[in-house]
Amino acid sequence: MKVETVMPDRDKFYQKLLNRIFDGVYFVDVEKKVTYWNKGAERISGYSAAEMLGLSCPDKILVHVDDRGTDLCKGECPLSETMTDNSMFTAEVYLNHKDGHRVPVTIGVSSLMDEDGKCIGVVEVFREIAVRTIDKQLIEDLKKSALLDPLTELANRRYVNMKLRASFEELRRHDIPFGLIIGDIDFFKNVNDTWGHAAGDSVLQMISRTLEGNMRASDMAGRWGGDEFIFIASHFEGGNLGILADKLRKLVENCTVIIKSTSVNVTMTLGGTQARTDDTIESLTERADRFLYQGKSSGRNLVIVDEKAE
Question: Does the global pTM surpass 0.70?
Answer without folding.
Answer: no
